[in-house]
Structures are given as structure tokens and as C-alpha cells.
Amino acid sequence: MKQDNLNISYEEFVQLKQKFEEKEKKIEAQLWVDSTLNKFDELLRVNYAKSLEEFSQIVIQHIAELTNAFSGIMYTLDKENKVFKASAGYAIEIDKLEKRVFKEGEGAVGQAVASAKTLLFENIPADSVEVYFGSAKVNVANIRVIPLVFNEIVFGALELVYITNVSEVYARLLEKISRSIATMIESILNNDFNQKLLVDSQEQTDLLRAQEEELRQNLEEIAATQDLMNKQQKELEQKEMDMSETLKKIAKEKQDIEENEKKMKDTVEKYQQDIKRYQEKDKVIEQLKAELATYRKAKSTTPKPEKI
After folding, report:
1. Which residues lie in coiled coils (predicted)?
2. Phi-psi category of residue 167: left, alpha or beta, with phi > 0 → left and psi -120 to 50 → alpha
């Protein structure tokens, strides 16, 4: 026998509806993160051939505007000196920074690099850090220092300042974006290194064959990386299709719930109408009872006729 869908309590219905709404919000948030990552990867690919400084400036500006950061600095790895230099800034002139270079383990940037983990500074005292607008000054809510890690190697770090708290969705997005940035920095550094080798090879004929072989290997790695990125792109498209189907199913389930809710509402209204009719009948019965009592009282006080 088919079970009646209305055979649930109102509390159970509310809980079920709340679960579906929470599930829908999570899926929408994940879709937004995946879509934003896809667009960001396209931005990285478009600017792949630029210099490290130009690339860094485009990236830090995009991330700061995307996550509503007040200011930001991007640090990149200097392989030769084994330090991390400020290569670009947002709402900051890096040339005027008191300190632009950090070693591993030095300061917040160096510590984030050493641990390969994001450092989050919250609940900053009001008199410790202030930022200035043209007409006012405000206190900093939190500062994030995010290492840029790829293949267990740190290629840089992001230092982002916020005057409001960062949502969980933005925090998750920043962690994923950091890996994409690190991948591109590694490629740019490798390309810069290869370019230097090519210049040196023109002056050192004896090293030409070795440099050509190394360049060929690097090109193969780039091709393999491109194949991997194409594969990831296809997987992402399939994932988006799957999520789209899931959203359709959720929408159908939501429609069913709304229909059930309407049926329940109609049922409740019918019950209320029945109760109203019963109440009216109760009033009539009470009135009849009152009339009967009056009649009985009048009857009992009427004098009986005398017997002759």
C-alpha cells in the first residue's frame, strides 16, 4: 500500500525543508567556487607569458577585488638567493615598504613559507593596526598570509588585509586559488631560467647540446602540464553537468514539498472550518439546554389543581 506523503508531523516537515535548503546553499556555493576557479585559471593562462612582476600585479589585484580585501602583497620566490620578495601590491606601494624581502621562517611571511600553512591573525587590538581611507580610518579585522605551494615546494605567499571578516566560501576559494598561482609561478620561473640558458648558450657553444636537451624536456613537461589542465577542464565540465542535474533534482524535490505543504494547508483549513461548525452546534445545544432548564423550572413552580 502506498504511504501517504502527508503522514508526517509539521516539525518533521520543517526539518526536512530546512535540510533541503541547506543542501541547496552548499551546492550553490560549491558551484560558485568551481566556476570562479575556472575563470581564474583562464586568467592565469592568458597572462602566462608575462613577466613575474606583471603576472604578480594582475593576480594580487584580481584576488583583492574578488575577496574584498583592503590591501594585499604578493611575494614570490627568488631561487638564486633563497628569499621571498614583494613582487606586487594592491593599495600599497611596495617600493615604500619597510621590509620587502623575507627569509624562510622570518616574520609572518617567512613563517607561513616555513610551515606551508595559512596564517590567520584575528581579533587584532583596535590600536594595533589601522588603515586609512581618504576621509576616515578604520581598524583591521584580520590578516591572512597564504603560502603558494605546488608539489610540496613554496613558490611565494599572499598577504591580504581585511577590514571585515572573511566568509568560509572565500577562505576555501583562497586556498584553492593559491595552488593554481603556485603552479604558474613555477612555470614562469622555469621559463625565465630557460631563457637565461638560451642566452648563455649563444655565448657557450660547448653547452648548446645540453641546453637544447634540457629545453626539450621542459617543453615536454609543459605539454604534459597542458594535457593535465585539459583533462581537469573536462572533469570540471562533467562535474558542472552532474551538479546541474543535482540542482534539477533538488528543484523537483522542492516543488514536491511545496505541493505537499499546500495540501497540508488545505487540510488544516478544512479542519478549522469543521471546528467552527462544531462550535456553532455547541452554541445551539447550549441554548436548547438553557431553554429546557427554564421550562423545567417554570413547570416546577406552577401550582397543581386542587382535587374535588
Report:
1. 198-298
2. beta
Specify if 167 maps to a domain. Answer: yes
Q: Find the helix or strand (DSSP H, E) in which 216 lies.
A: helix 208-301
pTM equals: 0.56
Question: Considering only CA atoms, which of 270, 272, 262, 271 is closest in space to residue 6?
Answer: 262
Q: For residue 49, give the DSSP letter.
A: T
Cβ–Cβ under 8 Å, residues 257 and 16:
yes
Q: Read off the pLDDT of residues 250-279 as tens digits, 9 standing for 90 and up.
A: 888 888 888 888 888 888 888 888 888 888
The residue segments making up the domain with residue 149 are: 12-203
- 165: domain CATH number is 3.30.450.40
Dihedrals phi, psi of 68, to nearest 5 degrees: 60, 40
Distance (Å, whole) CA 143 – CA 126:
13
Residue 235: inside a domain, yes or no?
Answer: no
Amino acid at 246: T
The tally of domains found in the chain comes to 1
| CA-closest candidate to residue 115, choices 82, 145, 80, 76 | 145
User: Is 173 part of any domain?
Assistant: yes
> 92: helix, coil or strand?
coil
Residues near 234 by Cβ (< 8 Å), separated by ≥ 6? none
Query: Which residue matches cell numbers 577585488?
Result: 65
Cell triple for 68: 574584498
Residue 59 near residue 79, CB atoms below 8 Å: no
Q: Which grid cell is 37? A: 576557479
